[in-house]
Amino acid sequence: MRTSQPQTIYLKDYRQPPFLVERVDLRFELFEDGARVHSTLALRRNPDGGQGAPLELDGDSLVLEQLELDGESLAESAYQVTPSSLRIDQVPDEFSLYVVTWILPQDNTRLEGLYKSSGMFCTQCEAEGFRCITYFPDRPDVMARFSTRVEADKARYPVLLSNGNDVDRGELADGRHYVTWEDPFPKPCYLFALVAGDLTEKRDTFTTMSGRSIDLRMYVEHRNAEKCDYALDSLKRSMRWDEEVYGREYDLDIFMIVAVDDFNMGAMENKGLNIFNSSCVLTSADTATDAAFQRVEAIVAHEYFHNWSGNRVTCRDWFQLSLKEGFTVFRDSQFSADMGSPTAQRIDNVALLRTAQFAEDSGPMAHPVRPDSYMEISNFYTLTIYEKGAEVVRMLHTLMGADGFRAGSDLYFERHDGQAVTTDEFVKAMEDANGRDLTLFRRWYQQAGTPVVEVSDSFDETAGTYQLTFRQSIPATPGQSEKLPQHIPFAIGLIGENGQSLPLQLVGDSGDAPEERVLELTEQEQTFTFEGLNARPVPSLLREFSAPVKVKYPWTRDQLLFLMTYDSDGFNRWDAGQRLTVDIIQSLMDSPQETVVDPRLVTAFRHLLSDSRLDQALVTKMLQLPTEAYLIELADEADVQSIHKARTRVLNQLALQLRDELIACYRRNTDDGAYAPTPDAIARRSLKNTALSWLLHINDEEGRSLALRQFSKATNMTDQAGALRALVNSDFEEDRTSSLDAFYAQFSDDPQVVEQWFSIQAASPRAGTLDAVSALLEHKAFDWKNPNKIRSVIGAFAGQNLVNFHAADGSGYRFLAQHILALDSTNPQIAARLVSPLTRWRRYSASHREGMKAALEQIQAKPDLSKDVYEVVSKSLAG
Ligand code: BES
Ligand code: ZN
């Protein structure tokens, strides 16, 4: 056990900062055995802050070397240094503070603050990493102008970067050199960045809507020089899109992207100097899958979009994190939808939300989009902040309409440019621009838990009217037992006997009757009556998933099959298929002696596989069976083994009965043309690889030779990895090992591909994977200091290989606990993220519960447990 309980930070305790920082002048001396940071702060008492308060600056793992106030050294009695702060009791209202600190980037395994990655220096300051560099008021509402001079050995570190524009450079003694950067925009310190290394530079330009020419520069290690094109193209598309859709123009003259191998997250939006995890920015046809290309496009866009939604307008405090993250995720998903297949994009977003965010929202870590408290802010970069936060913004878009939403965002950016604000200001701008009252809507930010909407209907044949009644409820979550109704935009359509869309004529509404309506639910129970119908329609509910809620309606299997074929909303066609398949899998679980899968499902899948006129991007999504993770989330008491068995049975039967269609589908979608990550080509590759994996699932000999051929002849990574995965998950023992060996031999010098090689093995549901996974941890390419390697082995095992992670003997849980404990000391952020598969132990069947709980208790017993891991573990065990 930790000896002391970490402090909880509350939103209600927010106070304005007592001191403001006008300017920060930094000078970094970078050496192999450490770095010296000279910081000169122009400080001033905040007229709206606490009067007479002492100056208190944040610091973490710093050695204070020098301290001067207005040019005078301070006597030791004039200040106090603690492990987390520097305090000076007597200061004037306006003064200059000079602080010199000594830090150890080469020993920094937490990857917060300044650290070294593959020989280069880089930084990660969000959320609270700047305090690991120098003493500073490390909070987002303190915004300052930064200048940064970086000094280092010229041969080792020819490239020296920071935010803004490079204004000076020159030579120093001993083979050293320096570059000075000025950032004209005041910013919170979490957006500070520095990079020093031997990097190659790729250049491009972008002309903004007002005709300014922007220098785009991408910096990568020399061996990655050929992997930059797609990121730079994505960047230019993002810049254009943000001008066209949001009217937002880029503001500096330079925009830089850097790729680093060791990074806790995906990427970071530092002002003018975005830093990326290599796996989220480098691509080439033969090393990156379609999914990787899509991820790169989305993340480049996301970080770029932050320049307005996050940087120009930033967060007042970290409780407002969704102000920038939720909004920016919404923006990047709009962008991805515009660049690719909107329906496929929506399906992917919703699948993630319903599987993982809904699980979070009903577990011990459930919190509102704007949390009320936290112990460690790093634990709050959650699916709720990001994905539910994006859904909340999306609902505003639905309620205001595209033009109203744009008016609201224009007003928000204009009003708050250069400010640090709250989610309330965002909603207020939407209200003011549209003349609407969003009081009830604000509850989406305040209440945790996924609303449940129960829908019932009745048809009056003689009157020709159809009634829909909606009842909403929100389950209790930690710290919130009572909930109030929320404002839910609920999009619907009605479908007639022949599959036609029916006009929605509301009783008492004299306007036209559209074929789709967004009903606004604001009360616990509401009824809507539609007239002019001569037969009972089938309702198409929550089209496009217009709100992040669970819908309950007693669909029959025939209704679902009907919706799968006829719903004009592509998302709902997919959803109907998912609901039908879930129902069939669940009924097999309830009666394990039942062996036949409902033949109607086979027919529906046959149709999907064979009809090439259907939208192939949608078809390939519809062919994916609901994941085990989703089935677990739907269960009251999840028994992972029986979920796995029932799902596998359905997959087997479908594959056996549709074997010829799978072969035909495979052949139809084979394409030897040049690789391009276009929506159509991505859909075809996905279909082909799904067909392949199904064929290998039933040990089909022809499937096997197709896979071996595809593996050796592939001209792109999607196909090569697709074949490898199918073989690895198959019973063809020899092909499995020979293709794994061949793949490693081919790509052993490419870390991103080796990470894929790790995760394909770690995620394989075959029996006995745990031993193989343990062996991977001993592999020479594995590196405990590299988060991507940890994620690709331990993360893939615990997060994707559910049948083995939840092995009956508890071995999976012990394995995870053991490695979390080791990582807790080196990288607590990564360790805390790995706890999440254990947190919902109460939702599993008795056979799993004890083992999961024991693993949590074992972690909790570590004496000096980090605050990060402590928060997640103690909240999981509490109550
Ligand atoms: N600001 C975050 C990165 C971040 C998060 C830094 C937490 C430090 C702590 C960045 O904008 C982000 O959200 N990145 C995402 C990817 C994005 C496409 C959702 C990430 O890194 O996963
Ligand atoms: Zn972000």
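^ zinc ion complex. Residues 383-416 form the longest helix (34 residues). The two ends are 18 Å apart (CA to CA).
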